[in-house]
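[job 0412] stage=complex_fold ligand=adenosine-5'-triphosphate status=START
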Amino acid sequence: MSTENKETKESLNFIEQIIEEHNKTGKYNQKVHTRFPPEPNGYLHIGHAKSICLNFGLSQKYNGLTNLRFDDTNPEKEEVEYVKSIQNDVKWLGFSWEDRMFFASDYFDKIYEYACQLIKNDKAYIDDQTSEQMASTKGNPTKAGIESPYRNRTIAENLDLFERMKNGEFEEGTKALRAKIDMASSNMHMRDPVLYRIKKATHHRTGDKWCIYPMYDFAHCISDSIENITHSVCTLEFEVHRPLYDWILETLGIYRPQQIEFARLNLNYTVMSKRKLLQLVNEKIVESWDDPRMPTISGLRRRGYTPESIRNFATRIGIAKRDNVIDVSLLEFSVREHLNKITTRVMGVLNPLKVIITNYPEAKNEDLVIENNPEDENSGTRTIPFSREIFIEQDDFLEVAPKGYFRLSVGGMVRLKAAYIIECKSVVKNEQGEITALHCEYFENSKSGQDTSGLKVKGVIHFVEANQAIDAEVRLYDRLFTDESPDAHEDKGFKEFINPNSLEIVKNCKLEPSLKNAKVGEKYQFQRLGYFCVDTESTENNLVFNRTVTLKDAWAKEQKK
Ligand code: ATP
Ligand code: MG
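[job 0412] stage=complex_fold status=DONE, emitting structure tokens
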């Protein structure tokens, strides 16, 4: 439910409502300071993009600030490569953390001090039980847990043991620091949660300085507090952690931000957890984190998505308090909508069929004028060549046309986009009986824009002039999964639903010569075929294009059939 802001008449989402309420009461002195807190254990995906747009969007709207904070409390899983890619992706989406890039590991000394403070206040203790013992004495939501036999150690003993843990005197798993809260709490997270564990691992930033590391729940709220975050926005699964978030900061007597939970983005035909995406990369099911079939920000970028289209998508889906699944075609719609506005319409033939226009003079070459983008009146025109030999799409020809077929067939006529009407007179076949070329005739007085032929044809097809055509490789993509919810099957893993036809490589495509110097990342509409983008692997001698998306939603059409 959203209410209206009376001054601006726009509707507010529930987080904005909370912020406006805080601004009214002055709870955070009219300040809005959010953070985006990724764990550097993988590349960011479209779900993270939603969180980025939300956090940075809120601070933009309320004239506030957003920090980028790496939640690097888990030393084993984090890598420098991920830290770099995350920064790159946030910037690419169009957001700036200015000079506020932080690491939770920057606060390890402070977090350690706070742990000591809890011990001194008799609010935390060292437990010698193994994690299995702790789990087995935790109880369940309807049955209270059992207090640890180590729960009532003296403060002095706890302080001594904690320091010795820090000094590396104990083996992993033999001791842990636990909060002393309530083993009978109805909230399992309040049953003496572990705050620190021993981990003899090298950290990507602090090296071997530490052999104890704070748990996420302990580090996160303290990091938020240190950075003076006002609204700590996170996904719904943290709702049950909120009492612990509040307990830690209140017990320490330090500044407390407001944690607010929203529903994470789920997309159909997609898996979204970094762990699963890593599996796809490691097991070579996809090429890399930025494989254009991946739902990662880097994959979408390489596929040809624009930052605007992703931001628009985030706005369009809005934010909710309940989990839901968004149709991936909505994401495709957003990119189609943006590319429609900004891309030049070019001609490219994926599966070429040679056409010889027998009545067109052999030595003649023409430059035909064609509009760059009818959606953009400032985009102007350019010229494309025309001569006796051209390529059309194999799909645009059938030897014998069925009823209602408006493309080319023997004896039939069609208009070549921005050029002439042609009529097919005969086909040329090889020994196997395959069609290798068409013989056609053109109507000289049917030139686009100055047609006096009086001929009426229903079909318009694209073409590329043969002599000046350039070769390219084109990569066509389909969904990576054949199932709507690949990771929601109890009996089968998500990898059982990999679409074996998610990538089709088409070589020897023919493109109009204006694309000769197309640069990596440039985006075009290939007439009738979709939106395409120059791939990162493209070189001057081997042009490679990715199809970002078709012109229309092919899946929706399939379903209607
Ligand atoms: P994953 O489950 O994919 O590994 P994560 O939650 O472990 O994701 P983090 O790096 O911890 O990944 O997430 C950084 C921020 O992005 C967190 O605030 C998290 O809530 C948010 N986030 C992660 N996934 C989504 C999603 N699908 N939709 C919205 N926000 C998300
Ligand atoms: Mg996480």
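The longest strand covers residues 421-429.
[job 0412] exit 0
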